[in-house]
Amino acid sequence: MPVNKKTVIFMVGPTAIGKTEFALKLARRVKGEIISCDSMQVYKGMQILNQAPTPADTKERYYLVKFLSPQKEFSVAAFIKKCSLLIDELIKRKKVPIVAGGSGLYIKGLIDGLFPSPKADIKFRKKMYGYAARYGSAKLHGKLKKIDAHSALSIHPNDTRRIVRALEIRHSTGKTMTELKKATKGIRDKYDVKIFGFTADREKIYSNINNRVDDMFAAGVINEVKKLLKKRLSRTAKAVIGFKESLGYLKGEYDLKTAKELMKRNTRRFAKRQLTWFRADNRIKWFDVGRMNNSGIIKSIAKEIK
């Protein structure tokens, strides 16, 4: 099926909803190749924890999975740089880039651009917090309104932290947040971006998560964490759900059943945060996987990207 050569497809949603499966099916239909947008699937040696696709899962090209040592940090900026280059390369080869994953900040940064935030100015921050403590955050908000009315409209007068940061940016760069955001560019300025989201009722999502966690324990997630403990893991890698919960068990803080329940609970909470993030983006076309069969969803998406 012919697809606009400058179209980039995004497939997003909460964990355990089936994004990888949908991406693989769509890739076969539209001659696409897949780029993972998952901050944890970049790591090697964490197959059970990060649930990264394996070579056996697919014949399609799948990028940005299991290429980085868990001892190294990974960031939004690093993802955007690597993913942007891959997208350009795929477009040149007349392939359809399919970016699939649930890391909302990574996706937003790639599509809309990464806001060039300056380093912290601790001295200036202390001065502004002191001003707020003496005169109130509303008066500090008034100072912001005079120099950047647009940003002031989106920041509550009681949100001292964000007010201070907006003033700090103006102080450090000589430009307001509004001016810097206008200069920020993402791939939406270069390509036709189509975003498709997958959801289901809460019971189905939670059931999928609980089943996945059960499978992870059956597959040996505790042993995987034991191996990882022999390395000096990066702060980013340690944040993977399941590491902290398994560690508590290994330290004797609670039993295996409790570790499993904690992992299920924390993954459910993560899925809820993902949905909250994505639902705020009105560009996303949503599909309920509990009400439509997979082939029907893929057929609908294919029609949308003609």
What this model shows, in words?
- Helix 2 (47-50) links the parallel strand 2 and strand 3.
- By secondary structure, the protein is of the alpha/beta class.
- Strands 3-2-4-1-5-6 form a 6-stranded parallel sheet, sandwiched between helices.
- It has helices at residues 19-30, 47-50, 76-92, 104-112, 122-135, 137-147, 149-154, 160-173, 177-183, 202-219, 221-228, 235-238, 243-250, 256-279, 294-304; strands at 7-12, 32-36, 62-63, 96-101, 192-199, 284-288.
- The protein has 2 domains: 7-114 and 186-304, Rossmann fold, CATH 3.40.50.300; 122-183, Histone, subunit A, CATH 1.10.20.
- The mean pLDDT is 93.
Question: Helix/strand-derived class?
Answer: alpha/beta
How far apart the termini lie comes to 8 Å
Main beta sheet strand tally, sense and closure: 6 strands, parallel
Q: Give the C-alpha Rg.
A: 22 Å
Which CATH class of the largest domain is shown? Alpha Beta
Count of strand segments: 6
Helix percent reads 40-55%
Q: Shape, please?
A: globular
Number of helices: 15
Q: Could you give the order of the helices and strands?
A: EHEHEHEHHHHHHEHHHHHEH
Order of adjacent strands in the largest pleated sheet: 3-2-4-1-5-6
CATH architecture of the largest domain: 3-Layer(aba) Sandwich
Fourth-level CATH superfamily of the largest domain: P-loop containing nucleotide triphosphate hydrolases
Q: Any idea how many domains?
A: 2
| DSSP strand content | 5-15%
- pLDDT averaged residue by residue: 93
CATH topology name of the largest domain, in short, is: Rossmann fold
Low-confidence stretches: none
